[in-house]
Amino acid sequence: MTASEEVRLHISGLRKIYGLGTSSEFEAVKRLDFDLHAGEFACLVGPSGSGKTTLLKMIAGLMDPTEGEVVLNGKRVDGPPEGMAVVLQEYARSLFPWMTVEKNVELPLRVAGLDKATREERIAEALGAVGLEAARKKFPWQLSGGMQQRVAIARAVATHPSVMLMDEPFAAVDAQTRGELEDLVRRVWRQLDMTILFVTHDIDESVFLGDRVVVLSMAPTVVQDDIKIDLPLEREQLGTHALPRFAELRKHVYEQVQFAKTNPGGIHSSTDERRRTV
Amino acid sequence: MRTLRQIAIWVALPIILIILWWALTARGASFFVPQPAGLFSKFIDVWMGERLLTDVLPSLGRLAVGLVISTIVGIGLGVLIGSVRWVRWLLEPLLEFLRAIPSTIMIPVLLLLIGINDTMKVVVIVLGCLWPILLNTIEGVRSLDEVLKNTADIYRFKGWPRLVFVTLPGASPLILAGIRQSIAVGLILLVVSEMFAATDGIGYLIMNFQNRVAIPEMWSGIVLLGILGVMLSAGFQLIEKRILRWYYGLKEAANDS
Ligand SMILES: Nc1ncnc2c1ncn2[C@@H]1O[C@H](COP(=O)(O)OP(=O)(O)OP(=O)(O)O)[C@@H](O)[C@H]1O
Ligand SMILES: [Mg+2]
User: Fold this and answer.
1) What's the pTM?
2) CB contact under 8 A, B153 and A85
């Protein structure tokens, strides 16, 4: 599956000032403009505190921007929009502890008004994709961290979102599980024809997963760089990581992130003119 | 195994105390202090006959109605106040003031307003039992995990489904703790309201025995209240354990890691 030219998510002039009008005013996001095309898998990297979560919350309609707008499928976002699912960083706390795994996955479908048969189908499909059919009747707190994360992903995937946002979803799982989850996300992305915006601070992960990496600057945040990842569509942990092209791309993203760490929005790196032509 | 030991502890201490009591009063005691064996037979005589229907049942009925009303009103108002900020802002000072008024003090007023009847007793019970449930519900609704709230927003849960699947279950540990407190408060208020103005009921009979200097009968009434208290709280704990199975499991899992 490749990205088409159809714009799925349009972000223009997005700005966020926390505590506007108070003495502790803080400009977290200065100005962000970028588009996500249908079917694209974009990774968002940036130093800690660069406003990645802030951006995601604005896109998800959980927080109003100070200026600018987010447009999803041609409609301006002014609250959590239909057709979008979000996997939060605190996945363990995002599962309802009073419901079993299958009920957690079912609830958004039920609230959306899908009939019983369709719900069953979606649950089976989503839990199958993340390899958790056996844990259907368990409660979230009976599962390991990696399993909980997979439930959160299954819940998002089951809604068949056209756009899925993920905020550092694998930051807290061990390396082995992380590799498995990365493969999993690539697989469901290709299966379900989604557009994904994936926040991470792990450079390897961004290059491995995305077909595009957007690097953010320090706050006040702007887009520092936007890199096309021209690795093959079929990726797997060992082979892909060993490609010479992988190493080149990783080096480039690394340099950009290093530069971003010391530079707030507005200052441009020397490689800026070389954007997309690494 | 653990439950067995718990039961043993539950049973052992009362038995030891009864033996002590028996030993201390065996050679006769003050007129006002009952002996275990005598009290036991009195208890059967006084309460296990007709009075079960004419006095115990009406008392329990008032308590039940009072508790059910308190629970419905407490949860309903609590959810509203807990989830709508301006309502909370508006009502909080008023609630603080009302809560500070002991509901027993309202008995004389209610006697004048309502008269000597069941309604008045239920109102006294509700005035006292409402607070633990109301305040705990407000707290429970407010303290719902921010991430769960975000999740509910993301999947566009609104109105009734949000209430039933997210808000109430999330607040249920605190709500049930409030109800448990209310049961204890309710029993006390029941008896007090019946002492003031009644023609039947456990509280009424205890006062009546005391007036007639029927000391062993009076004590048997106190024993009955004790037993009722224990049975109600044990019964409620069973319900609580069932509803909050997830909560205990969650806490245990959090402690293990
Ligand atoms: N509610 C808030 N009020 C004031 N400032 C905030 C608030 N939330 C975040 N900030 C500030 O905005 C900046 C961006 O925060 P944000 O959480 O978006 O960063 P991030 O890129 O997600 O960081 P991390 O990688 O550590 O998760 C930070 O400097 C933070 O201190
Ligand atoms: Mg963050």
Assistant:
1) 0.86
2) no
